Amino acid sequence: MASPRITLLGIPIDAVTQTQAIEKLRVLVTQPGQHHVMTPNSEMLVASVRDATFRSVLQKSALNLPDSIGLVWMAKMTGQHLPERVTGVDTVTKFLTTLSPEHSVFLLGSAPGIADRAAETLMQMNAQLNIVGTHAGSPRDEDAPAIIEKIRSALPSILLVAYGAPAQDLWVDQHLASLPSVRLAMGVGGTFDFLAGTRKRAPLILQSLGLEWMWRLLLEPKRWKRIWNAVVVFPWFVLRYGKETPVSA
After folding, report:
1. Which phi and psi angles does 32 have, rounded to 5°?
2. What does the domain layout of the chain look like in residue ranges?
3. Alpha helix ranges (H) inside 29-166
4. pLDDT digit string (tens) for 16-60?
5. Which pTM value belongs to this model?
């Protein structure tokens, strides 16, 4: 059964809790066809305004999880409702720690060695987890043939891609059809880094207050433009355009 959806800046967002999101992932991996799951946050919706190709990918995905508190707040400002923030890292981790071995997983992306360390962490959480491959690679077109061959040989039913948005989701959209064993593909951003312990998440109090951006700015000041887009540009866009796709911005 399809979940209710809201719309922000012309992008559909699934109005689900984390528990419901995990259940939907379990269903998708058993269903025929191929399913692209995305985790849009405030920054990604700003990017969608400026990139028609990325906007199109977001609009046709099987599931869009609201991965920032800004989406929850702006939904309310436009007379809509999202029950809660559903973070990609928590959803993916909890999904995999309860996944049965009949569904195999391939971890693609992040810096060299990070996916391997993330796989080790996940195996400690779920000894039955069937990880059939890891690879760093890159989203560059020239790297795609070798990556596709590696994934095709491994025959995973689940593909997690950590190239960062929008690159990871554009890669999935472009190449998923060439990976016939994959039933569920999902862009996971910094999830591998968190699992590997190379990046620290904000304290829970900052997460609960919607101030995770302050933690990121403190640790990575070079991200200030991205944080500006998420904290300032996104609310301004929504207050100006609401549910509609901006004609220009």
Report:
1. -60, 160
2. 5-196, 204-239
3. 42-50, 52-60, 69-77, 88-97, 114-125, 144-154
4. 999 999 999 999 999 999 999 999 999 999 999 999 999 999 999
5. 0.91
